[in-house]
Specification:
heterotrimer; A alpha/beta (422); B mainly alpha (281); C mainly alpha (280); A: 422 residues; alpha/beta; D-Maltodextrin-Binding Protein, domain 2; B: 281 residues; mainly alpha; MetI-like fold; 2 strands
Amino acid sequence: MSYQTKIAGAVSGLALLVSAVAAHADVLFWSTQAKPVEEAQAMRTQVLAGFAGGVDYQPNDGGPWLTRLNAELQAGSGAIGVLGGLHGDFSAMNPADLVDLSSLGVSSASATFNDLSKLGTGEMQYVPWMQATYIMAANRKALEHLPAGADLNALSYDQLIEWAANVHKAVGEPKFGFPAGPQGLKHRFFQGYLYPSFTDGVVRTFASDAAVTGWEKFRELWAHTNPASTNFSFMQEQLLSGDAWIVFDHTARLAQAFNERPDDFVAFPAPAGPAGRGFMPVLAGIAIPRTAPDMDAAKALVAHMLKPETQIATLRATNFFPVVDVALPNDLPPAVKASGAAIAKMSGAPDANPGLLPAGLGDKGGDFNRVFVDSFERIVLGGQDIRTVLNDQKKTLSRIMTESGAPCWAPDAPSAGPCPVE
Amino acid sequence: MTPRYLPYLLILPVTLFLGLFFLYPFVLVAMQAFDGGGRFSLENFQEVVDYWKFPISLRNTLLLAAAVVPVQLALALLMATMVTRMQKGRDLVLYIWTIPLGISDLAAGIIWLAIFEQSGFLNSMMSGLGLIDRPMNLLSYQNLGLAFLAIALAEIWRATAIMLVILVAGIGLIPKEYYEAAEVFGASPWQRFIRITLPLLRPSLQTALILRVILAFEVFAVVAALGGTLFPVLMSQTYAYQFELLNGGAAAAVALIILAISIAATLVILRVLRVPKGATI
Amino acid sequence: MTAATPAGRPASDARRAGRLVYLAVVGLLCAWVLVPIYFLLVNTLSSPEAVNNFPKAFWPEFDLASLTFFAQFAGMLKALTNSVLVAALTMVMSILIGAPAGYALSRFDFPGKAAFRLLVMLTRAFPLPLLALPLAVMFIQTGLDDTIFGLALVHTTLALPFAVLITFSLFSGIPIELEESAWTLGCTRLSAFIKVVLPLILPGITASAIFAFVISWNEVFAAAVLTIENRTLTAFLLQNLDTSPLHLKFAGGFILVVPALVFIFAVRKYLFAMWGIANR
């Protein structure tokens, strides 16, 4: 036994030595984004290759990302130089764990994003890195079933439902696809698209009559949705295999379909409800944890990511759009062109009703999302009475808002204290 | 002749190892489950049990284990008996049957999803044979029973080899003379199996069953791949609490509940399949 | 054996029929295991269009595009080496530490034995992702962070229950009389163990080695948290696969599966090693 301990000690000492000698020349870029293998490859070889000093880009699942970060913060020292994640990942953190980045002098072109990145403090805790949103896409075969008088780029929910019903009848199978799978981001659909379009609010109007109408309409749409949608997390797969002809999803999760068969698919804005055309951005940011080993190199990397050339390279690699003002070149992949056009039409529409990402929820962000996911599962999958479910979930939502103290955000009217659920 | 401390010396390395790398983090995490704002409380348990998905997850986990483990036990016993009686080709057949062991549960989920999904291999085969004219949706929420069957099938495929390897290693030590003697006395193959193989395989059966049952209560990846959000199990609740809701106390509470179920099942198996002291032959 | 008499004809027919059933069942079970793997292979060797098509082809196109992508994927070889090292270390450590405990459990009756057995079994009943945080903090503070050895320690913890319990069940099948006779013939306890018992439990050691290797090879969470520059192949690749396009999912999955299969193939006959000798 003592022999074993001696060996263990020697190996451990050797490991220490080796890791100290191989000093971290590379900045460790610890990210939850660009996880698909081609995106990770593109990040390493195209986006980050030009950074002096070298970058070790490591995309991870949310669990390991968070665990490693928390371990380093608890231990007081670590290897992570730069963090990459979504706004929701950072807003759940303690701002004290992130290095203030306002003094860096880099920011996005959008005041809203810069404000979001402050996480309620006076300084930027993360720098907005790249953005995307959800759009709709359809197989060209579905276009012939559009209802008369419907403009693809300005659909209403009723027209969408009629369209899906037409396709269902013509083909004999429901062909609407919705990312209701475990990695799908369906909660953002309900928070940023369904609720703003029907109720012109998210928290205040959670259990309103307009909300009941919204859920009823979604139930109608669900009747024409491929029932295996509870397995779908990346609608590009279903578009390519033909399991779904009309889909709603994140631009980055539709990219493969457009890049492989650009002539077979079209992208168009999300539909509008009685209260406008609701949509919500997906915002990714970069931050520096307080335990970063080399602050200067980390800050240099952050600045590098916000440079126009890097932003365009990132667009090519990940299908996430720049947050700074850049002129997009002409030779972008088909997916970028198609989704870019749809996004422009959506945000430029006369009835556009943009929703903001939830802010100020702290570590209750997950609970907030769960309210919407549970409502969906009980109302749509479980067939429970809408009014009952909403009244029930309303209690949970109220508790979350009072415990986190988060004020209302767009499209809800501003509030003085925690956002009330009316 | 035997120093009295010899057994303790022999188990010392394992105890130290597990103490340092398991007990220490376990105690830290388990304490979180009982932590309600700085003082001892059971509110984490209350919270997780009150959540509407908890009874569903519990039922699903237990149901899946009850459906899968007995089938795997029978299958593993069958395969172990068959392979040890083989003359040639024994190595190859055993190798083939232990292939799923090398496949992680995430990879198994990917493979079986490719089989069961709407545009997958099963539908391709059925439509190629003319059995159906359009692909069936086997994994939809409208047909929970079918989805459960698919998950059970994938789990049986993936994890039978765990028990098989343990049983094969144990069966090799049963002396052939017993079987020959039984044959002389006119015992049928089934009687030889029941009277000789099973009793002498008890220690291995115990090990195989306990390990398999413990792992069955922790099932996650295959269920998530095939069932998506349809089939919550206790483990998916644990991960949701830990990584999405950032509620370490609740996650630890669910994990402790899984642990309690595993302890109960282990004690039952130890009782039913107890190995009499000194009964080596 | 029975002499061949005219009355023996129906018996041999029955025997032949029984043999046919036996072969059919063996064949069915082999197909049951191999067919899904074959589908994995088909998808790995197909073009992206074919992978997304319906109906799926049952014969691969031998399109190497997906595999070539991974051949050029930066960092694969290093990660592969790391995985092999960690798995090998795990094997060695879990058997060296676990086998003595298995022997103690089967031969001795001592106070604390039941508790010890329970502890060993229940280490597998608590999910590692929850334990990863305190472990990572401990590793960072003691300098074991981001080392092959450190990760191997965690994987050994996962593999120990298998090693202990399998060697226990094997030792339980070897009568103590064998050892006792060796003692009476002048062997010390240790040399009796090495010369008499060890060869007989080689299948158990092999089984433990297989489990240790496979557990270490496929483990992803602790590897993703505890190794950064020395990532194992699983931590490096598996996390990225579930968000990747379908054809790369399959090719990547295939690459992850092959080394484990190669290892099991290499040690397969040791699972049977002493079949002849066990004929006492």
